[in-house]
Prior knowledge:
By secondary structure, the protein is an alpha/beta fold. It has helices spanning about 50-60, 70-75, 105-115, 120-130, 160-170, 190-200, 215-220, 235, 250-270, and strands at about 5, 30-40, 40-45, 60-65, 85-90, 95, 100, 135-140, 145-150, 175-180, 180-185, 205-210, 225-230, 245. The protein contains 9 helices and 14 strands. The strands form 4 sheets. The protein has a 5-stranded parallel beta sheet with strand order 4-1-12-13-14, sandwiched between helices. The protein has a 4-stranded antiparallel beta sheet with strand order 8-9-11-10. Strands 5-6-7 form a 3-stranded antiparallel beta sheet, with helices on one face. Helix 1 (about 50-60) packs parallel to helix 9. The longest helix is centred in the last third of the chain and has 17 residues, at about 250-270. The radius of gyration is 18 Å and the shape is globular.
Amino acid sequence: MPALVASDLDRTLIYSAAALALTMPDARAPRLLCVEVHESRPLSYMTETAAQLLTDLGDRAVFVPTTTRTRKQYLRINLPGPAPTYAICANGGHILVDGVSDPGWHATVTARLAEQCAPLAEVQEHLLRAADPVWVRKHRVADDLFAYLVVERELLDEEWVKELAVWAENRGWTVSLQGRKIYAVPKPLTKSAAMREVARRTGADLTLAAGDSLLDADLLLAADQGWRPGHGELADSDWTAPAVRALPERGVLAGERILRELLRAAAAGPGRFA
């Protein structure tokens, strides 16, 4: 059976202009391909080399985009290569099959959340009451599953984020700070559970994963082999695990390196990681 590759998107395979980290001389910067347009403006990019690698990966493996984005946010991305049959959105709250959410999976997830953690309304109310309007730009709820804030990062009180994490932990939720967004996500809402379900459906005997944030840690641990870039929450905390390779590259070139690693591992097959 082909390998299953479950990869995070933002700051793992695709990058906003602010996250590109083009530190080389201008004349040596890689050629970029725009893969997302929002409100008539280019929003996310990958290198042209990464685009070809992703196309090759899609031909060789079951590629499953795995994102915290909502379904609507995911569907505006135009990735190169074969259209993925499966995608994981809302941090595992939705499994898309040919672009449509699987109702059975979503019902299973929502029932699990109702049983195991505090309700979304309680967390949303706390965020509205406790966050300082000086640094909060937007309050958002994602697919009625979790909440996040868009903040002015330079004004953000990071001690407040730590206090929020403790508050959330006691209610069965987790907190992740990614760029200008503070996510509050129920602990049972995981990318790894959705990846296991897709692996079951496809019969994959090898699972590969990549990601950069705290919300990707469970995905990386669940896969047979994982990779993280040299930037992001996991890199900032020096997080790693026996089957997870920490790469030195940062920014859009990290996306290129990750795809090379995924393609090599998918071609090698089970039990042949170098």
